[in-house]
Structures are given as C-alpha cells and as structure tokens.
Design goal:
globular, Cathepsin B, Chain A, cysteine-type peptidase activity, 9 helices, 344 residues, 30% helix
Length: 344
C-alpha cells in the first residue's frame, strides 16, 4: 500500500510546484496538520486514514528538518516538494534512473582539451541567450520522466538534440522521448541505457519525431510505430574529455551537453533553489542536461543543469551546482562522463 501511495504522490506532482511554509505552520500539531492537508491538496494526494496518519509523522519531521536547514545560512534551500511525506530511504529510491556511463573505448573530442579560461565566455545560459536571431530560449522547459521509469538517458539525449537543432535552424521544437524508449532497442527503455547508443539510434533512424506526435507514456510499450514524421536530425556525437572542467565549460559554451551525476542522495532530491554544494557521491548514474554556467555576485561559480523530474522540482526543474570543488570528478561526478550531438 505504501509503495502505491508513493507512486500516486509522484504522478500527481508533475503538474504542481513545492509549497511554501512558515514558522507559524510548524507552531502546533493543528497547524502542522493543516500544512499537511494543504500539501496533500496541492499534490492531489488521497490516502486512507491509517496511511495518512503514518505519513503525517514523516511529513512533520521532514518539514522541521527542512525549516532548520533553510535557516542555517547555507548556499541553497531544501524544498517541501513531492518527496514531502517520504522517508529518506523512499526519497533515495524515488525517480530512480539507470544511466550507464560511456564504455572505455569512447574517444574524447580533443577540441575542448585544456581550453584556456581566457577563451571562454564569463557566463553561458542557453535558456536565455541571443544567438544569430534565433529563439529567446534554446532549451525546452523541464519535463518529467515519472517515478516508475529509469528513462533519464532518453530525456537528456532528447534535450540536447532539441537544443542543437534550435541553434542550427532557429526553431525550438519539443521532441519525443517515447520514441527512444520504444524504438532504440540497443538500450533498455525504463531499465536504463547508454547515451552514446541513443545518439547512434537518432543518427541511424533519421532523427526524432515531434513530442506531440509521440507523447511520453512512462513505460516501454513493446512496439515502434513505422513512418514517424521527422522533426529533428543529427549527424553524430562526441565525448567531452573526462575530469576537465575547462573542456566541459567550452563544450557547453558551444551547445547544451549531456552529463551524468549521482542524484540518489536526499540533499539532491530535496533541493529547492540556490547553489547546490552537496553532499553527494561521485558515482554518476543519472543523465541530465548541462545548459550553462555562471558566477554569483559573491563570486561563487556554478553549473546550470536541467533535470527530468518536472518543473515542480528545484528551480523550475533546474539546479545550479557548485563548479569549483576539490574532487577530481566534480560535484556529484559531473566531470566524469559527458557528450553532445553533432549537427553540421
């Protein structure tokens, strides 16, 4: 019953955003219950009385810890988002994604090796960038892979294909992740996949179709429709050198890039805004889309990353991650494995 309830919360969350709360909401058992009722209504969560009473205990503790964290003068806030009444173990398992990193024989693109910082723009944000008279944004809004499908690889690949086609054609067109789930048979659908195999499929199949023509179902359907209309194409893909922050900066200065991060820890899941510093591991398994980088007024450098957990998570579906960290792998392993599509 608990597992089903968690799924209901996550499915409903796709159309919602995190709710705000104050010290007053935490002041009494009654006000906490009213906050929980508001949270359930906000996320359209329906529970039987026994389950709701058990979940309320978890919710109260989460709200208290989030409030305490957010008053600790950290560089980022946590959010009472769709994971609000989940335990830490449930939160870690929710939105699980299986993204396998590139195989050892992948050849990096030497174009971006050891690029001097003086050759790079001081900031890049493909969500809002003037480029040759094209659209105001070269990045579609955050989409939602859903709780039951490990399809982050398909969303990250689709996002970069959308962006490079917008850069080349000056038209931003949402593309179909479901096509990759159903038709890219070299990958595992909701069980995970290789990013480079997804790019190979896009090249060999002739391209991706429109999102509206082949909408996302959150599961592999077991068939691939023939004669799909082609909305966007690519000519190949390349791998960015690993463990090289400047190479990754140069790559994303040219176009959005698929990167892999470790996203299964509770702080990442409960991220609500600001510059995320961790803690998180450095064993990447979740594919996301790097869309830029920047620096705060206080001089803190960060990456701009598009996730696939819907616009209700983080900063409208995006996260800013600290760029300068001592770990060779980068924060959450962001420097380990990255690649991008090529379109001439």
């Amino acid at each position: 019953m608990a597992t089903l309830a968690v799924a209901i919360v996550l499915l409903a969350a796709s159309a919602a955003s995190a709710i705000d709360f104050t010290e007053h909401d935490l002041g009494s058992e009654q006000s906490m219950w009213e906050l929980y009722e508001r949270w359930c209504e906000h996320y359209k969560v329906v529970r039987d009385p026994g389950e709701k009473a058990r979940r309320f205990i978890v919710f109260k503790e989460n709200a208290r810890l989030i409030n305490e964290f957010n008053h600790g003068h950290m560089s980022y806030n946590k959010s009472l988002n769709m994971f609000g009444d989940m335990t830490d173990d449930e939160t870690r398992r929710a939105y699980h994604c299986s993204m396998v990193t590139s195989p050892p024989h992948s050849v990096p693109d030497d174009t971006f090796t050891r690029v001097a910082t003086r050759n790079l723009p001081w900031a890049v944000d493909w969500r809002n960038r003037a480029y040759g008279g094209g659209p105001a944004s070269y990045v579609t809004g955050a989409k939602n892979q859903g709780p039951g499908c490990g399809s982050c690889w398909a969303f990250a690949v689709t996002a970069t294909v959308e962006s490079i086609n917008a850069i080349r054609t000056k038209i931003l067109t949402p593309l179909s992740e479901q096509q990759l789930l159903d038709c890219n048979l070299d990958n595992g659908g909701c069980s995970g996949g290789y990013v480079h195999k997804a790019f190979d499929y896009v090249v060999k199949s002739g391209g991706l179709t429109f999102e509206y023509a082949y909408p996302y179902k959150g599961r592999r359907q077991g068939f691939c429709p023939p004669h799909l209309p082609i909305a966007a194409t690519i000519d190949g893909h390349r791998h960015v050198p690993s463990y090289d922050m400047f190479a990754l900066m140069a790559a994303v200065a040219a176009q959005p890039v698929v990167v892999a991060v470790q996203a299964d820890e509770v702080p990442f899941k409960r991220y609500g805004g600001g510059i995320f510093r961790g803690p998180c591991g450095t064993r990447p398994g979740h594919a996301v889309t790097l869309v830029g980088y920047g620096t705060t007024n206080d001089g803190e450098n960060y990456w701009i990353v598009k996730n696939s957990w819907g616009p209700n998570w983080g900063e409208n579906g995006f996260i800013r991650m600290k760029r300068d960290v001592p770990e060779r792998e980068g924060l959450c392993g962001i420097l380990v494995d990255s690649s991008y599509p090529v379109k001439y």
